[in-house]
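Lab meeting, item 3. Inverse folding demo.
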């Protein structure tokens, strides 16, 4: 029986937007995986904790964004792991929880040059493998090690930072994210304090 391959796309999703969803959908449809799981990060070791909106809000928005998709799903495993969280810990936890699945790590080309700085980076490539997608101003690598796949996914130039700043300015960002996510933001009055209440990525 063929083992199901899951791509893990980590992020703060602060908030999740159409760019995240289009990337995940593209990799799930055209990449070397069967599904993409959006892995919510409670804390990025390279960022300050204060930058993040409360976990429950970001998780609720992810759930609303995915809305029953069979190829793009939400993963909250990192919320129960000791902090700060590192990718190797997440992958080992997922491997123990889902022994019948194979996992791949999805990163942007902006993270590729600094990937050797990640904890146990060589083990991550050897044990799980990487999928690298393009980011603006960071060309895709021409030569990569074995177990690293480059996918030329379309670039959607939307950032969570831009969305938060626009919401703080009172602009209508409804078409930058699923309507149910925008409704959640409006209903809970998130990102209203000049983008500073929850920080800027």
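The presenter then showed the designed sequence:
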């Amino acid at each position: 029986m063929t083992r199901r391959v899951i791509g893990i796309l980590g992020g703060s999703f602060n908030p999740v937007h159409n760019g995240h969803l289009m990337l995940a959908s593209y990799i799930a449809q055209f990449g070397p995986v069967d599904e993409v799981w959006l892995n919510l990060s409670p804390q990025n070791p390279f960022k300050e904790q204060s930058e993040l909106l409360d976990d429950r809000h970001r998780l609720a928005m992810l759930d609303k964004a995915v809305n029953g998709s069979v190829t793009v799903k939400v993963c909250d495993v990192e919320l129960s792991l000791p902090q700060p969280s590192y990718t190797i810990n997440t992958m080992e936890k997922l491997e123990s929880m889902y022994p019948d699945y194979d996992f791949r790590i999805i990163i942007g080309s902006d993270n590729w040059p600094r990937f050797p700085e990640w904890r146990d980076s060589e083990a991550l490539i050897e044990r799980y493998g990487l999928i690298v997608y393009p980011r603006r101003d960071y060309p895709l690598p021409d030569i990569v090690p074995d177990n690293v796949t480059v996918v030329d996914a379309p670039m959607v130039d939307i950032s969570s930072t831009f969305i938060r700043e626009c919401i703080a300015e009172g602009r209508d960002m409804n078409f930058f994210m699923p309507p149910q996510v925008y409704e959640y933001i409006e209903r809970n009055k998130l990102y209203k304090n000049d983008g500073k209440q929850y920080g800027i990525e």
